[in-house]
Amino acid sequence: MSTKGDKSKLLILPALIVVGIVTQIPFILTIIFSFINWNVKRPDLGINFAGIDNYKKILTDGQFYQVVFNSLLIVVVALTICTVLGILFGLMLNRNFRGVNLLRTLFVIPYFVMEAVVGIIWKTLMLNPSLGLNYYISNALGIEPIDFFGKYALLTIMILIIWQWTPFFFLIIMAGLQNMPSEIIESAKIDGATGWKLLTHIQLPLIRDHINVAMTLGLINILKVFGLIYVTTSGGPGSSSSNLPYYSYKALFYDWNVGTAAAIAVVTVALTLIVVQRFYGFMMKKNTKNI
Question: Where are the transmembrane segments (predicted)?
Answer without folding.
Answer: 12-36, 67-93, 105-125, 152-177, 211-233, 253-276
